[in-house]
Structure to design on (521 residues):
């Protein structure tokens, strides 16, 4: 209860500051709309079905992109953590792929993967992949070598040691990576939409911003992305609370 | 396993000319050299020696965690293999898995051996009872005191009732009084089942109080410097200080230890690599 109260107070302060800036600055609506203008525009967008039409697509991209990216990252991270050879062979490519701006790659990936949902899921997964893979690798290596020897003395093989020791030891670090990854998945979906899509919140931002000069609508799309990010982040934290041994 | 001694339920261990060499920063490290030792089935052997003489390496050899670089190790009539179920090993630290309850920690060897859930629970509880920890089965390791954690580790080594029990200074971190209690209980456990027990220690009095035979090792590379038979009747009281024969034996062990220590100063004690 107290935490919800604190969140509401901080939201009220944020909105009040925002309002104060628009009043003091006297900006035109296409530069900085007042919060109530954005709220009113949001209600209209919900009522007309416009918001859901775009948000639904983006949600799907985020969920699939995060699932694919995180799943691949966990498996890769375990392999990287367990084998020095795998790390030496793979890590230059992983780091290089991360260093290349995804904004530059996205249009190419869009063409390669057929320009549909698949392409957007791939782009989103790619952005999500890196922090989770690295966190998993670091986490797997953090397993206590004394416990590892204890398990070996009981005849536990590599797969059993991964299941019984390495993954549980790595969970706190893995969840650190998942928290970063899940927020990146929102950015990934928008970047992917910008590379070529006709629906999605990223597309809505472009339409509102460049086509209609409807800045309040753009703010509605941004706020929706922020809420999606918060909700997914919260979901990861909830799963973490259940799973991480303490 | 037909090679288990029928009168004791223990297994015999034979180590012949065993050498162990590790890769170390800046070269290799000869931990053991030409070590020959026979441990009879159902006997209580105590290994004693200076720090870093390879006592723990010797236990790891018998546990099958490492293979000798030269020579051979035979348990029963086959080389040991980690997890073959013939050896229970308790380390210097309890090494309990922090997110498992005491019961689940003790049941771990059974879990890895593929025992059923009911069987695991029953046998783990029995093992906890044997070490006097039945009331703490639901606690997590961080809720246990140092002594309780070592009891749990001992229960984990005992849970499969292995023919050989290897104990690597499991009580060294405990206070003197707790340690004495442990020694008494360890002797009771030994007399209960007569498995082969090998205990590594630094304490001469502990060695004499528990052992059938005390094996004194040389500094690195570890060899057997002397074997002293302890022919005191069992069960032995925890405090043997008043016993004249025990005092004589302790003096002999101490003498062999200091003689072995002197070797460290000799130039031919081939100290290779970094310590």
């Amino acid at each position: 209860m107290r935490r919800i109260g604190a969140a509401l107070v901080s939201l009220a302060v944020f909105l009040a500051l925002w309002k104060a800036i628009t009043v003091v600055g006297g900006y035109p609506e296409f530069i900085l709309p007042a919060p109530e203008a954005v709220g009113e525009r949001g209600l209209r967008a919900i009522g007309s079905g416009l918001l859901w039409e775009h948000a639904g697509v983006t949600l799907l991209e985020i969920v699939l992109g995060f699932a694919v990216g995180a799943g691949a990252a966990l498996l890769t991270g375990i392999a990287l953590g367990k084998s020095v050879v795998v790390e030496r062979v793979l890590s230059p490519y992983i780091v290089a792929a991360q260093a290349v701006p995804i904004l530059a790659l996205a249009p190419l990936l869009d063409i390669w993967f057929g320009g549909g949902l698949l392409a957007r899921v791939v782009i989103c997964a790619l952005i999500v992949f890196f922090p989770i893979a690295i966190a998993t690798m670091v986490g797997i290596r953090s397993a206590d070598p004394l416990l590892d020897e204890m398990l070996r003395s009981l005849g536990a093989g590599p797969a059993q040691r991964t299941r019984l020791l390495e993954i549980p030891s790595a969970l706190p670090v893995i969840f650190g990576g998942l928290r970063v990854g899940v927020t990146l998945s929102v950015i990934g979906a928008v970047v992917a939409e910008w590379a070529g899509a006709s629906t999605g919140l990223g597309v809505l931002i472009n339409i509102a911003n460049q086509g209609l000069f409807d800045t309040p609508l753009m703010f509605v799309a941004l706020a929706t992305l922020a809420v999606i990010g918060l909700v997914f982040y919260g979901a990861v934290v909830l799963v973490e609370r259940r799973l991480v041994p303490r | 396993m037909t090679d288990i001694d029928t009168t004791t339920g223990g297994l015999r261990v034979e180590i012949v000319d065993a050498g162990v060499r590790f890769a170390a920063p800046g070269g290799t490290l000869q931990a053991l050299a030409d070590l020959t030792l026979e441990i009879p089935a159902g006997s209580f052997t105590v290994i004693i020696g200076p720090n870093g003489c390879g006592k723990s390496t010797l236990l790891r050899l018998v546990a099958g965690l490492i293979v000798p670089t030269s020579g051979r190790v035979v348990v029963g009539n086959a080389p040991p293999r980690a997890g073959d179920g013939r050896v229970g090993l308790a380390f210097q630290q309890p090494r309990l898995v922090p997110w498992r309850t005491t019961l689940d920690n003790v049941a771990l060897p059974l879990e890895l051996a593929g025992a059923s859930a009911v069987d695991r629970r029953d046998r783990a509880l029995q093992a906890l009872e044997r070490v006097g920890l039945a009331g703490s089965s639901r606690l997590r390791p961080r809720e246990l005191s140092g002594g309780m954690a070592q009891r749990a580790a001992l229960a984990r080594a005992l849970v499969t009732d292995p023919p050989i029990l290897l104990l690597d200074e499991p009580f060294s971190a405990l206070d003197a009084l707790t340690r004495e209690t442990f020694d008494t209980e360890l002797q009771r456990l030994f007399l209960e089942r007569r498995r082969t027990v090998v205990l590594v220690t630094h304490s001469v009095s502990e060695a004499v109080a528990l052992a059938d035979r005390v094996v004194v090792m040389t500094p690195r590379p570890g060899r057997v410097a002397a074997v002293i038979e302890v022919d005191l009747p069992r069960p032995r009281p925890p405090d043997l200080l008043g016993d004249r024969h025990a005092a004589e034996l302790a003096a002999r062990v101490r003498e062999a230890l200091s003689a072995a220590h002197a070797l460290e100063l000799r130039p031919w004690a081939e100290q290779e690599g970094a310590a």
